[in-house]
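Would you mind writing out the residues of a protein together with its fold in token form for me to study?
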Amino acid sequence: MKAIWNDTIIAESDDTVVIENNHYFPAESIKKEYFKSSETHSTCPWKGVASYYTLEVDGKENVDAAWYYPEVSELAKTIKGRVAFWKGVSVVQ
């Protein structure tokens, strides 16, 4: 699977986990040069507290377009150490 934004591959892996129609990529599969930490957090009742990344590709920003769970609940242990995307990021094979 590939995550693409602004015509650039920002993550690529054959080992994604799909939960709630989102592909969670292993953290080591993301291209870190495109990711900036964000101060944004949100809470999922069963997964835990999510943290976000803002994407920056070729001078364009996509604020909070990637998220991950630094600490996951027992129910969500399959996504520990993984990153998912939204806000116009395409995930394709």
Observations:
- The beta strands are 2-5, 8-12, 17-19, 22-26, 35-44, 48-57, 60-68, 82-85, 90-92.
- The first strand starts at residue 2 and ends at 5.
